[in-house]
Structures are given as structure tokens and as C-alpha cells.
Amino acid sequence: MTAHMTMGTTMDGIYLDNNATTRVDDEVVTAMLPYFTEQFGNPSSMHQFGNRVGHALKTARGQIQELIGAAHDSEIIFTSCGTESDSTAILSALRAQPNRREIITTNVEHPAVLALCEHLEKDGYIVHYLKVDMKGRLDLREYQALLSDKVAIASIMWANNETGTLFPVKKMAEMAFDAGVMFHTDAVQAVGKVPIDLKRTAISMLSISGHKLHAPKGIGVLYLRRGVRFRPMLRGGHQERGRRAGTENSAFIVGLGKAAELALQHMEEEQTRVRDLRDRLEEGILSAVPHCFVTGDPDHRLPNTCNIAFEFIEGEAILMLMNKLGIAASSGSACTSGSLEPSHVMRAMDIPYTAAHGSIRFSLSRHNTEAEIDRVIEAIPPIVAQLRKLSPYWGADGPVENPEAAFAPAYS
Amino acid sequence: MWDYSETVKEHFYNPRNAGAIDGANATGDVGSLSCGDALRLTLKVNPDTEVIEDAGFQTFGCGSAIASSSALTEIIKGMTLEEALKVSNQDIADYLDGLPPEKMHCSVMGREALQAAVADYKGEEWKDDHEEGALICKCFAVDAVLIEETVRANGLTTVEEVAHYTKAGGGCASCHEGIEEILAKVLAEAGATFDPEAAPKPVVEATPAALVAGMTGVQRIKKIDEVIESLRPMLQADAGDVELVEVMEDKVYVNMKGACINCQLASVTLNGIQEKLVEELGEFIRVIPASQLAKGPAKKPAMVPLGELVQS
Ligand SMILES: Cc1ncc(COP(=O)(O)O)c(C=O)c1O
Ligand code: FES
Hints:
Chain B: Residues 4-125 form the NIF system FeS cluster assembly NifU N-terminal domain. The structure holds 2 protein chains of 2 kinds. Chain A is α/β, with parallel strands linked by helices. Chain A is built from 14 helices and 13 strands. The two termini of chain A are 24 Å apart. In chain B, 40% of the residues lie in helices and 16% in strands. Chain B folds into 3 domains: 6-121, Alpha-Beta Complex (Sufe protein. Chain: A); 135-197, Arc Repressor Mutant, subunit A (Orthogonal Bundle), CATH 1.10.10; 210-292, Fe-S cluster assembly (FSCA) (GMP Synthetase, Chain A, domain 3, 2-Layer Sandwich). The radius of gyration of chain B is 23 Å and the shape is globular. The interface between A and B is large, with 37 and 43 residues. The site of pyridoxal-5'-phosphate has 12 residues of chain A, from helix 3.
């Protein structure tokens, strides 16, 4: 989702767009600040200025290692963002195994994976896009049938950014491992929200983005399992053991380390209090608004995310009215991104156009309160009613009979 | 978040003429469900005078689709059918103080609903020939379908030619990859290959002489006049012209003349003159229409006028 109606801080509005980005935690900011001024050294340097920063990076690596349960801290490679981690993983697998020219992914990945794969197709690579059903679930038999010694990498997201749907990546990594195929997962939305213990999985590579877990934007991690063959995307200095050249973004790395430590501390809360708030919001809206439904797989879902499709109205219009009341969320409508089609995730689940354009994603964080959720539950029904009054699909007090036939505009 | 004008927001929050009207004798349904914008326009036309006495809209769409539906109904109420048919997309966008390029298709939809409703009133069949592609060039709101058709119809082979014919690619240049892909595709159909080497080389700015040698005020104004004079033949070739009116610090006021006055691309031309002046004088200069001279501080420039560039 590209366009988000965002607020400044949580102080002057209700921020339910945490899958887009999160507020940097105050403790994270405090941890980072010295690394802009007193602790400005280059960790590669042979003096105390550099040395102290080097130690701080080591601490951060350890904090992230703990959050994702990596066996070694050298498996953590710092990058500039989730997108860089995704690109590095996929391009590395192709370069390290030039005889393997196929990729398996899904058609609901983030553009960070999808756009790269589409580009690789132009270079002659074959990409298999796994389909999803109406609840956004994969068919593992389709996946099994595609695994072969021609496949360089399977890249399957851990959690979907739009619906929060969780894919069975641990199982899929084992299937890939048995077939001798590398397995990468874009876990940008999952890390910090669900417990992860990588050493007990067969996952070869995993992407993290700092700004989804209360660290700043512009810092990410690629987890690379020891022994997985690797080819760097950026070559140059020996930073990150030569696997990602470029002087370390030390302040941001320290911040991400702190954010990882906090995420681990709050993991329990994410699974309980945040989940309860999400469920309260979802039940509140579903019981007050007719003709709306939850998209994705509610039984296998991130605890913070709920995506509701409001039929017969359009998402950008909903967001604008919400924004007027200080409530921030995002939508899968075409109009929010300036494209011609609603979100590829909604299309992949075969959600009808009249509902896909009205899909709204509410994504919470541990900073949200029950009072906020209650205000949103109160605000949504009149907004939906107001827009439905304008809709050609809506009659006096409900959808017109057989809506798609009653209003069938030219060139639809 | 879209940079909507206050007028767009106002029409969205308080739409005029929402809902179907009673006693309508003309209806136009247009739009595309896949792209999330659809509009039903209902009109009450006086059969004797053909004056539109009332108009109402129902829209499934985004903020600007609702705002441009509201604007359209306000514009056409009281017009005769003949007058109403002359309302252009640009008129709708202007009424709303501009729309972002990605959103121009919302005003296209309003105009088409009007055509469909008039056809319905006259008992004619309205056939839409509208085909919309993905937006390629944001600077000039040109979509893939228009570029592809123009490339095919005129046998174009370079990005530069595409810019000449469609304006796409003539601004910030970030859409050149997309344009090259279309060229490669169309050329491949004809058995030819796209030659990337034919692309013009990027402009490298030389160190301006004026930076090296300081100028007196008189020398500076002379230099500005010289640069503007040197650009005149190019504008005259398009039946336009430009004249230097005043120089105040970094502001250069000019009069656009002839065909330039109503040109959709007047602001682009001004930018071109400005760029040339900046390059030649080696200092930052703003070129402003002389019409703004007496009105105090320069206004924020309007959004790039798009008008007929959008296929309707
Ligand atoms: C699933 C997923 N992958 C990748 C990204 C890209 O991350 P970044 O913005 O750090 O490049 C995002 C966030 O926008 C995401 O949600
Ligand atoms: S986007 Fe086409 S020139 Fe700027």
C-alpha cells in the first residue's frame, strides 16, 4: 500500500497504520542520540573513537540475534531497509547458482519482491507465482510440485502486509530444504509481532525492516544462515564481513538493536493486549456496519492487523473522512496508489471490485489504547453511511437489488 | 497523501447535487469498476429550451471523483445541452483549482457521463472509445495507451520523439524507462529493435561565465535581455513570443505573447526560460508572468495544466 493518510504523532490523532510505519520508541531515540555526536567514530578505525562504536554494533547484533533466535550473531547483516534485504537475498541466490534459473514466490508479496521478480523475468528468469484462495491461503501441493533443482530460491513472505495473513513458512522452508532449494522469507511484518526462533527452522535468509518495529526508517537486516552460499549486492569495504560494503549506519543500527530488545520485552503484550484491541475493533465495526467483511485468513493472522472490505464504496474516500476525524489507516483501493487496479492482494483473493476498492487496513501497535479503539468504532459507521448515500450501488437503505446489473457503466 | 486543493476537499466534504434527481429525463452511466471509479449522472432537461434545469450525481469513487462529479453538476446547471457539451476536462479541473496528474481521469469521467446523458436524452447510442492505460509520465499525465498508439501511428523510435509527440518524458525524465519499454515492445512487433544508444546524452552544466566574472547591474540586465532575445525565434516558430518587462533582484517578469498566452504549456515554457537564465547567469532566477507584477508576492504556481493531454 503506497498512500497512507498519516498523522504526525499519536498525540494529535489515532494512528492505526503501523504496518505502513511505526513511531520510533522514545527509548530507541535516547539510545541512538550519542552515536551522532560523542560516539561518531568509524568502527573500522584503529582508535578509541572507532572502537567504542564497534562495541555498540556488536551489542545491537546480539539484540537482534536474540529477537529472531539466530544461532550466531554473524548471521545478522545490516542493510539500508527491507527492500534492500529482499533484493540482496534473491539476487544472491541467482548469482551463487547460475545454473538455476527459476524462482518460486507468491502473487501477494510486497512490491519489494514482486517488482524485482517481474524485472528478472525480463532478463529470462522463470518466476512461479503461487496463487492464494479467497482467504489468502497457499496450496502447498502446488508449491511442492514446483520445487526442483532448477529453482534457485523460494521467497515467501512470513506475514502479509495488507491482511496480516501468516504463511506456513517454517513448513515451506523444510520442504525447500528437502528439495535442496534455498528459502528466503520477507518477515518485515512478522518480526517483533510474532515469536521467531530461526535456529530451529530451515530458513536460509530472512528480511527485517527497522521502521516496522519502532526503530527508524532506513535501517534493515538480512539474516543469512551460516553456510548458505552468498554473493554480495554491494561490494567494497570489508564491513559486515564483506557481505554488505559501506560504512555502518551506526546510530541506526544501535536504534534497531534497542528496538529489537523492546520488541522481545513486549512480545507477550503484542499477543494479548494488542490482539484484544484488534479483536475489539473488528467486532465493533462488523456488528455496526452492514455489508462489510474481514479479508485474509482470520485464523492465521498477525495480532495487530485487521483488514475490512466495505462494500459499494471506495477506500480513499473513506480514508479522507477518517482523516478529518484524526484517524489514520490505509486502503487497498486503486486511487490511494494512483494505479488502475485495486491492490494485487485483494485481486489475488478474488475479492469483487466493489469490495476490493473499499478495503481498509487497520494496523495497531502497543502504543494504542482502548479509548482510541472505542472512538474508531464510533466513527466508522456514519462515514460508511455517508459515502453509501452517494453510491450508485446503494438504494434507500441497502444495496440496490442485483447491484452489478442495476449499475453497469460503459467500459467497465 | 494526495496534494488536493482546498476546493477539491471542500467539494468532497460537502458535495453539491448528490443523489439521483426526481423527474430526470437523461441518465449517463460511465466508469470502470476495475479502476474503482464509476458515476451516474442524471439530468432534468427542459424539452423546449434544452436547458439543464437540474443535475444530480451518484459516484462510487475516491475523493477527487466525488469532487469532480460535484463540480460538473454545478458547472452545467443552467446551461443548454450544447453549451454543456463544450465543458472540457480542463474546465472541471480548473473549477477545482487543479487535480494531481494521477487523478485527471476523474474529470474525464465527468465529461463522459455528460456525453452519455446527452446521448440518452436524444435517444442516441453512446459509444465510448476510451481506453485507459497505466500512467507512465506523471509530469504530463500521459498513459501507456496514448504513448503506444502514438509510437505506432508515427513510427517513433526514440524517447526524444515520444516527448515531441506526446510530451511524455519531456520533464523530469524519470519515466524514460517506461517509455523505452513501450518503444521496445512496439518496435519488436515490427521486427525492429530499440536502440538505446540513440538516446540523447544527459545535459552537463558548464561553469557559467557570469559566476567567474562578476557583473554590474546593467551588465546583468543586458545579459538577461540577451538570453530572452535568443529564445524568441524558437517561440515565434510556434506563433508565440516573449518580452522582458522587469527585473527585481532574483525575479524576472516577462510577458508571454501570441500563441503562448493560452498555451497549455505556458508554465513549462516559463520553466524553460528560467532554466536557461539560471544556466547563463550562474545564479538562481525566478521567471514570473508580468501579470503578477502589481499583485504583490508571487503566488504559488498552479498545478501543471494538463487539459487535452489526457485522452478522453
Ligand atoms: C512485507 C514488506 N516487505 C518489504 C517492505 C519494505 O521495507 P522498507 O520500506 O524498509 O524497504 C515492507 C514495507 O513497506 C513490507 O511491508
Ligand atoms: S514523469 Fe515523465 S517527464 Fe517527468
